[in-house]
# Entry
Amino acid sequence: MDNLIKGDKHYWEMVIGLEVHAQVKSNSKLFSSSSTKFGSSPNSQVSLVDAAMPGMLPVINKYCVEQAVKTGIGLNAKINNYSVFDRKNYFYADLPQGYQISQYKYPIVGEGKVTIDFKDGTSKDIRIVRLHLEQDAGKSLHDQNPSKTYVDLNRSGVALMEIVSEPDIRTPEEAGMYISKIRSILMYLDTCDGNMQEGSLRADVNISVRKPGEEYGTRCEIKNLNSIKFIKQAINYEAKRQIEILESGGTIEQNTMLFNTATGKTRPMRNKEEAHDYRYFPDPDLLPLKIPEDDIKLIQSSIPELPDDLKNKFIETFKLSNYDASVLTAEKQTSDYFNDAINSDPDLKNFPKIIVNWITSELFSLLNKNNLDLKNSPVSAKNLGQLVKLITSNEISGKIGKDVLEEMFTSRKSAREIVNEKGLKQVTDQGEIEKVIEKVISENSKMVQEYLGGKDKLLGFFVGQAMKETKGKANPKILNDILKSKLIKKN
Amino acid sequence: MKIDKNTINKIARLSRIKIEDKESEDYIKDLNSILDWVEQLNEVNTDKVEPLSNISSSILPKREDVSKDVNSSDEILENAPDKLEGFFAVPKVVE
Amino acid sequence: MISKSIKKTLQSLEQKDISIRELNQEYIKKIKEKSNLNIFIHFEEQKILDQVTELEKDNSNKRLKGIPLAIKDLFCTKNMPTTAASKILENFNPTYESFVTQKLLDDGAIFVGKTNLDEFAMGSATDTSYFGNTINPLSADDTPLAPGGSSGGSAAAVAANLCLGATGTDTGGSIRQPASFCGVVGIKPTYGLCSRWGIAAFASSLDQAGVFTHNVEDASILLESSAGFDKRDSTSANVKIPNYFENLNDDISGKTIGIPKEYSIDGTPEEVSQIWEDAIKVLEKKGVKIKNISLPHTKYALPTYYIIAPAEASSNLARYDGVKYGYRSKEINSLDEMYENTRGQGFGKEVKRRILIGTYVLSAGYYDAYYLKAQKVRKLIANDFNEAFKECDLIVTPTAPSAAFPLHQEQDDPIKMYLNDVFTVPASLAGLPGISIPYGKDKNNLPLGIQILGKHFDEQQVLNGALSLERSNG
Ligand SMILES: [Mg+2]
Ligand SMILES: [Zn+2]
# Structure
């Protein structure tokens, strides 16, 4: 099994569960009217409620509740008609109330599942335990002053959806795919902006290792990871750390770990709390949250097409592979782009796979190199469609197509413009190609003899020479056919 | 005795309240007598009784998602015992 | 000579028998004379005069225009510091005005000062205050008496006639019991009638604001001004506030009054039982039907309360950590040290005791046995009242098991102190409205009180019943 990793003595299996914190895309905070805008000056978006002034009380944001319900539906999960806000009590500088309002016993959303798709065409369900609404904490800055920690409460009270998975994940790659899929669903639903750099989406990773078939081991929780790369790195490092301990006869201490992005290592939080005891109890400032079935139905009816539905549609309509379809639907902008490209010309309907390849390998690698994303791609979907059309109708070769795409990328011109301007149109005229081939044959008579003597590989050489003569524009099929017939004639 | 020295230290720590050694005897005595006294609730049969968190029978009121930037950071920091550069300041935390 | 009635004072002001300035100057004089009672945590003459000046410029009609009121120092006020009688809120100046006090200001009331209380409203004698205890104005010179608590300062302010009314808060009896001890009227309305917004929280599911006055009529006037729906408090009741004063009526004949047998408790002083019986007889004479009722879980109300209230308090008081406002200890080499020293030094003994017990009953392994159990018993207590009120319109009991006791008498034994609330706590757990009116005296000639409880949001009947009893009380 390739899910196993090898220690010095045994093979081990990772057991991973994720707690994803997704910021609800809302104008105001979960229990106060302060703005949620990112990047404002410190303590400028803090209400009396957020700063926990004496006598201040929470009032829930209706929109945030709806977004949680919407997300629950998107995660194929059960929406609970009755849920309760609890206080999670602990002290920290950026937790002004001395408690976080969260949901403990009765979350707003119950069990669900998310499907991840592998390259080999298989897929796997990761079960969701729950989704609950809670307040974000403020921000502590430890490096601004040699003797003090600074506290900024702008984030304090922002609405988060905590999405908790079962420990169904077995590899760092699966963890990455899982969080990408969650992100994808959130963004299709428009309930979270998915911006991991700004912390709108972050994850706590629970990880343990075991020998295959054995019980779960003791787990550690790595806190607050805000990129897929770090999640994978942290899991790899932490799994190895645990395996080393276990193989040398030690035991794992259940710990909360921090991941150092500079060193790629995890370490236990230095400020280790003796046993945590959060003393959850129902927040007496709030009443239970009751969501009538009719409200759920109303929200259900507003749910857009989700990645899995779209994926299945693509598989059915365009006969794409499961993997291709999942890559295409991972982000809404990609599926939109594909749709726009394929609909830009009626003939393109016959070449979906070719369009997918041009998008996901050629265009994506250019975008990547230039640190751009599809949203601000210099090549529009319509222009990419045109490029594919030129290739599939044999007006240019695929090889030239790549050059044209690069040119499109820098000049923002259309494919046809570039082909016309540079005279890149494929040569399909038999006579013209014949002339070139004759020239090549006559200039390389020695090679011709060798070829005829059995050195078959030399055919490629002649193709290359002929292509060079036509500046790559000769239609490769015609060129090949003529070349072969000429060489036989010679015999 | 439900509360011993260890327990009182544990809950004082959870409450972030420093208790001097000479006070802790008092607290141990008081808390134990209160706990013994409240124990009489065990006489009451509460099988199938729903816990009551709030007497209000109305439904949770909800606000519209409108952001109002009403408080300046000056106002929020006005009563802070220590503030620097627009932040609340506390002793340095080593994570 | 100034009347002790808000209604009559408003008439005098209207008829220009006295000006707002003269009236308030008179009260300033009284407050200064009684400074030895330690009733006010904050009193500043100039601030009162400034309010007078503002009102003099104001030509609009306001229903409490110029009436001097005292405010329990648990209500956040913009123009005066707010301490909750705790060192931990030393020098705290709210930038906001509580809902209740704002309503009173909007009606033209003048705040003469912030009154003393038990620290964070935790106590029954106003002796846990960081600012020292308040002395009951009815004390003889040689034996200072407790004014009750926690709103002892407010009750004493009214009793000493240092204002025409005062605000209080009642979590387990903190309005009704001091009203009884000081011989004034105190009403705690239904949970949710007055917004809690801007009142430093003690136990959120129980806290309720209310008022003290010299008489029932005034209580109806002040309650009407204080009550109302507030979007900023999720537990605030969205009900229309009746015109209590207009609808006040002392004729309650035909109503049924319930007398709960469980409120006859062994060890209750003879005088307390006597005034209770007297009150029942008087009401009966007025054409009221008397019905013996049972509230079977009464006995468990106090222990239930002393689990739930500290549990909520332990969490509500977590915000006092020395970061955002208030006191911060000087010995702070780490964040944890800052917390522990700030809270260790900033809170008084009773507050710490309750935070500790509250933390314990919520902690892992004990939640079900204590907190959850108490919530279930609370449900049974609430059910008792629901059943009882199917058979009666009002319930009449004594307010407290004794008259005012000497200061510091019961400080050492918390449970003995908690027993003061034995008659008031059950209604608090059930969220019911209750009033205490002075009724009779004990053998030392100290006032006793009768408590009248009503159905949820039936403050009108509670006030009517109280008026009826008040008018029959010589
Ligand atoms: Mg976590
Ligand atoms: Zn969380």
Q: What stands out?
A: The longest helix of chain A spans residues 228-247.
